[in-house]
Design goal:
With about 325 residues, the protein is of the alpha/beta class. It is built from 13 helices and twelve strands. α11 links the parallel β9 and β10.
Length: about 325
């Protein structure tokens, strides 16, 4: 009987040792300790994963000095650092040159591509070339309606028509009757969709005003002239954050009482919302567009994951007003909102 008890105790000790070892193994590889280690590596600017050093390229339709795209790029760079990705960025506001940049990255045999489709016809063939070369493509910001047809894995951004409709509804809530929608880049289908969407849901009348977005004095004088010619305009909607302060100046010079509203967010817009010089802003979270694009390409390369189920992954629209401004200011100052 003593031998039996001794044997049972021996088996128990062995089982306890095995169980303790297995729990320790789980904790060190897949549990909280592993998560903490990955988080510490990422916080220190080091890769949080040990996957291969893939190269991802992003090519946008941004012009020089566009703060919106600086935020997109920042988000992409943060995700790239975490995911052990070599990230390269190119941009050109001219669609043909944007297409040529994409082709150059295809020739370099990058492992993934992120592109915008502001002028989709010019980008269709080169996106198809990337697909034939076996390079996965994610589209961001513009071109959601053609992204899937062009062969992209998914699209990340806001639906521009839906965003425009949200603007029309917000103008209705504010009792506006006549609005001016200022388009700063002719040929950009997303801009047209924003204005058309707003017109669709707005109970008042809405007119488009085309301006040369690379010439701010021209933007200001064009808006100013329109407001002077039509005192009935009680709302001006700009399609990018850098144009909102210019519209405010135009309003002041014209002696107009129109409310200035805008798409997108930056420190000046946050301040304008807070002090009341701006009515509302439509945020599409550009940092998230860049970050998610890189992260989703990494997930696709690592685990064949695809988000969206064939539909765009939406990052907006979010209507921001005076009550939101104070909380968002610190994020705009660090260039992540």
């Amino acid at each position: 009987m003593a031998r039996v008890r001794t044997a049972v105790r021996a088996v128990s000790v062995v089982l306890a040792a095995v169980l303790a070892g297995s729990l320790a193994g789980c904790s060190s590889t897949g549990g909280k300790r592993a998560e903490d280690e990955r988080a510490a590596r990422a916080a220190g600017g080091r890769a949080a994963v040990d996957t291969p050093r893939w190269t991802f390229a992003m090519v946008t339709h941004s012009g020089d000095g566009d703060t919106f795209w600086d935020i997109v790029q920042s988000g992409a760079e943060q995700a790239a650092a975490k995911d052990n990705i070599k990230f390269v960025y190119g941009h050109d506001k001219e669609a043909q040159r944007q297409s040529q940049l994409v082709q150059s990255y295809i020739d370099q045999k990058v492992d993934g591509l992120i592109v915008t489709l502001a002028k989709p016809d010019a980008m269709k063939d080169v996106v198809a070339k990337a697909e034939r070369a076996g390079i996965p493509v994610i589209t961001v910001n513009s071109g959601s309606e053609v992204s899937k047809a062009y062969g992209a894995l998914t699209h990340i951004g806001q639906d521009e028509t839906v965003a425009g409709e949200a603007v029309g509804e917000e103008l209705n809530k504010r009792g506006r009757k006549k609005a001016l929608c200022v388009l700063h880049e002719q040929g950009n289908v997303g801009h047209e969709q924003r204005c058309d969407g707003a017109k669709k849901t707005f109970d008042g009348t809405m007119e488009k005003l085309y301006v040369e977005g690379t010439n701010m004095p021209d933007v200001q004088s064009s808006i100013e002239s329109k407001l002077q010619a039509d005192a009935g305009i009680d709302a001006v909607v700009t399609l990018g954050a850098p144009f909102a302060p210019t519209a405010v100046k135009a309003k002041e010079q014209a002696g107009s009482k129109a409310e200035i509203d805008t798409f997108d967010l930056n420190p000046q817009v946050a301040k304008g919302l807070e002090d009341g010089t701006l009515g509302f802003a439509v945020d599409q979270q550009p940092y998230l567009q860049g970050y998610q694009a890189v992260d989703l390409l990494w997930l696709y390369k690592y685990n064949a994951d695809v988000l969206g189920g064939g539909k765009p992954v939406l990052t907006g629209p979010q209507i921001l007003t005076k009550k939101d401004a104070a909380a968002l200011r610190k994020y705009t100052e660090r260039r992540t909102r």
